Amino acid sequence: MTAGGLCLAIETSCDETACAVVADGSTVVANLVSSQTAIHREFGGVVPELASRQHLRVLAGLVDEAMRKSRLRFSDLGCIAVTVGPGLIGALLVGVSYAKALGYAAKLPVVPVNHITGHIYANFLGGWQPEFPALCLVVSGGHTSLVLMSGDGRLTEIGRTRDDAAGEAFDKVARVLGLAYPGGPALERLAASGRGDAVALPRARLEPGSFDFSFSGLKTAVLYLVRGSPQNQSLSAGGAYLSPADIAASFQAAVVDMLVDRTVAAARHFGVRQVWLAGGVAANRHLRKQLGMALHQEGIGLHAPPPEFCTDNAAMIGVAGYMAWQRGVRAGWNFTAVADLAVGEEVS
Ligand code: KG4
Ligand code: ZN
Question: Which of 3.20.20.70, 3.40.640.10, 3.30.420.40, 3.40.50.11540 is the CATH number of 131-304?
Fold first, then answer.
């Protein structure tokens, strides 16, 4: 390990309080995630004020535990990385304020990290060597974007969703099917026993040459399909029986088709050798498999982080923060959280 290669990372942008220690931007020394799912479940989604309060309650203990598990003292660290945006403003402020106070007290530099950049940099865990230019498909609860990466820290968004994010569509359809929040993983489990071709759901086709996405038409089609029937249990398409599992599988197939279609088109257009997956929906096995197969036919490789590092975590923030620090990104003590930080935008 190089001197100063240890980064303590803090992530509080939404409903997971997370803390990690990462060595040299690639090796996870400690990785803790305290999920608030149980708190928000009864409301069917994240309640921002409850999220901030829970971050406040657990963050200090989580940082202590990460340090204890790593058997490190603060003086062993090289820097502290913290998610600065995008996300819920109150939730972000808890992490940013804590990181700055800790950095000031422990005489450590604090590196502000864009949450989306963090998701993308989860791909570097394990010491994998990237080839640039690369194309990143970012699919999370708040974002669906295609990001061209021409080098370390050089990110350009070339396409994005015009309405719902892919994860948001998964969560909304899961809710319509009566599945508990967060719906994405539950919908994937239900879809495993259904037929992806049970019902032909609409795939949005935007104007040629665009690398944007749209999922609201698909989501509405599922809503009508389910609400149009007296009960969720026995639905029909053209007279054939449709189970909730069939609807889940058909919806998942349609989302994945649209993601694969635009990603392959963009990969071809920009002549990239590698595509990287990032964000919570990147944990979806159907997406990983279908995108991998489609890219393979084009001679393009697919890289994806292990599923536990696709959903929100602090290790990814530690990787991105350490690499930003290494290439000279510096922030003063005055930086603050930015709820609507754009893809690729940095804070100093
Ligand atoms: O990246 P993430 O943890 O948080 C945000 O930054 O938004 O993504 C969370 C989203 C949620 O919408 C969740 O339902 C979805 O990712 N998700 C999945 C799966 N695991 C998480 N969607 C589909 N299949 C999954 N296996
Ligand atoms: Zn996220």
Answer: 3.30.420.40
